[in-house]
Amino acid sequence: MHLKDKVALITGAAQGIGRAFAQALLEKGCKVALVDLNVEVGEASKSAFDKEFGTQRSIFIACDVSNEENLKDAFKKADQHFGKLDIVVNNAGVNNEKNWEITVQINLISVIRGTYIGLEYMKNKNKCSEGAIVNVASLAGLIPAAFQPVYCASKHGVIGFTRSIAMFSAAENYGVRINAICPGFVNTPILQSIEKEENMGLYSSHKQDIKDMMEFYGVLDPSLIAEGLIKILEDDTLNGEIMKITTNQGIHFQEYSPLPFQSRK
Ligand code: NAD
Predict the structure, then answer these.
(1) Residue of 66, 190, 219 best suited for mutating to test ligand 1, as the one with most atoms within 8 Å of CB
(2) Which of 17, 101, 213, 234 is most buried by its number of CB atoms within 10 A?
(3) Homologous superfamily assigned to 7-246
(4) Residues 6+ apart with CB under 8 A from 38
(5) Structural domain boundaries in the chain
(6) pLDDT tens per residue across span 49-94
(7) Does the interface ipTM go beyond 0.95?
(8) 256 flagged as catalytic
(9) Residue 160, Cα to own-chain centre: how many angstroms?
(10) Concatenated DSSP letters for 35-66?
């Protein structure tokens, strides 16, 4: 996909990885809808982007992705504002093992919903595989995480869903590629959540174990995750792929054995 003049909707774009995604897409000439719950930080990011790229290139849309109507409205606003949608990045996520239901709601259910809504806007519109959906999972979607079991479950769910719906999109010739990104630890505000009892609950006493893991594996810069996103978007051959990003191997892909059964369509 040539990114110039494409329109992207990114959830959780106010800060962290989502903001780095927005920056990278704006640098490539895209227009970007920044969707986030955090109005103050979201508006501040939009102002910073306005200074660098001009006021017409981005829009901030306040939205709680866990609210179905809110999420549908955000897609509608972005589509009406820019006249189309080419790229959806379901990135918003939380780390909360205490109020764990919201972790499943935001990290998994809202990613599934964002994918379905994205497909409704993009399928069969852009021929030649021009639509793209990228779901943000985590390395915790591929391996166990002893002190974040629900976060881990939500990210495993994102990977299973993404690989499956990507096969369906291809079988139906929707013209929308769907992939996922799995970063290791990334230097963003979400890392502060491990310090808080209200986030870690039962696992609070293990925060030092998580810190030790961070030190062992290292912490990535959000700009590297954005590089991974650009790679997925620019390579039209990628569908149903799980990109891993780690300190020791950089950007690479999870290898799977071929599936014995393929759709006849
Ligand atoms: P972050 O906390 O810095 O940013 C997350 C953003 O999502 C925030 O702007 C927040 O306001 C927004 N958000 C949270 N709940 C929302 C909701 N209900 N509706 C709308 N917006 C909401 O975290 P981050 O590290 O940038 O995380 C981005 C994604 O990357 C998440 O899915 C996270 O699980 C994943 N991830 C992060 C790391 C890491 O170490 N930072 C590693 C692997 C995967």
Answers:
(1) 190
(2) 17
(3) NAD(P)-binding Rossmann-like Domain (3.40.50.720)
(4) 14, 15
(5) 7-246
(6) 999 999 999 999 999 999 999 999 999 999 999 999 999 999 999 9
(7) yes
(8) no
(9) 15
(10) EES-HHHHHHHHHHHHHHH-TTSEEEEE--TT
